Amino acid sequence: MGVLDDPALFYAEPQSDWSLGDIVVVPTVILWADGEKRAAAHPQPPSLVLVGGSAVYEAWSSPAAGLPLPLIECRLSPAVIAVDDCVIDKDFNAYVDRRIAEGTSEALAVEEARARPDLDPLIPVCPLLPYSELRFAREAAVRQAQPIGYFPILGSETVDEGYLDFTRTVPVSRQLLVRPLAALSEAARQILRWKFAQFSALRNLSVDAQIMAAVGRTITDVKVVADNRNRLVVELELDGGPDHLTLRQEPRREAIPPGHTRGRPSA
């Protein structure tokens, strides 16, 4: 059995900091246009969302001139942290690094940063959805992380099985995160990380098709230049005709520093 089939391989103990793949119970929202959903009277009892339902409200009393009235649908459900660790604490790490550069000890800089709730106040999460909500993607394919834009979540003692639809990713306040129900293993996180990269860079996958189409053809001319962003650009002429293949290489970047330990509330 593989990572996507065996909960023992899919899950691991939570880390000390919030991390990609942590599963939390948190409110998430969708913005609809008036008419797509029916707005309810405000407020609604918490029991509505505690049993898996959602509350839908008008965002404001009347539409802005020339714009549709937005509706807010809010639900409370398990969700998965949807960005990598260095993004979750980017402001925190930048603040600590700046204070260290100013002569402060790392311990004091970290203590100062932990006391500032304005550093990285938002964390993107993606709600866990039941397979009954799948519309066009095949469930069997989603369970194996095959379609672009989806990722399966295995069932466990604390988490019901389901899937992530990356288009549902929303930012939520860090203060709404209490503790993880569960955490993905490093092997599962690697697959999730790749699926997010595949989803966000889908257009760049067309480059693979261009390269594949050039296989077996003859390169009849090569031009190498640097563009105005200091990228190396190689332009290949194919078969002496009008077809060209252009390749660009970004300037070399320094390695991303490991960051500093932030930690999270224990309750």
Number of helices: 8
Oligomeric organization of the protein chains: single chain
Distance between the termini: 35 Å
Report the biggest beta sheet as strand number plus sense, adding barrel if it closes. 9 strands, antiparallel
The sequence of SSEs as H and E is HEEHEEHHHEHEEEEHHEEE
Number of strands: 12
What's the CATH topology name of the largest domain?
A: SH3 type barrels
Portion of residues in beta strands equals: 25-35%
CATH architecture descriptor of the largest domain: Roll
Bin the helical content. Answer: 10-25%
Taking pLDDT < 50 over at least 5 consecutive residues as the criterion, the unreliable ranges are none
The structural class is: alpha+beta
Average pLDDT score: 87
Task: Give an overview in words.
This protein has 267 residues and is α+β, with helices and mostly antiparallel strands. It is built from eight helices and twelve strands. The chain has helices spanning 7-10, 47-50, 85-88, 90-101, 106-114, 139-143, 186-200, 206-214; strands spanning 11-12, 22-33, 54-58, 70-81, 122-129, 150-153, 162-165, 170-173, 182-184, 219-226, 232-238, 244-249. Helix 4 (90-101) runs antiparallel to helix 5.
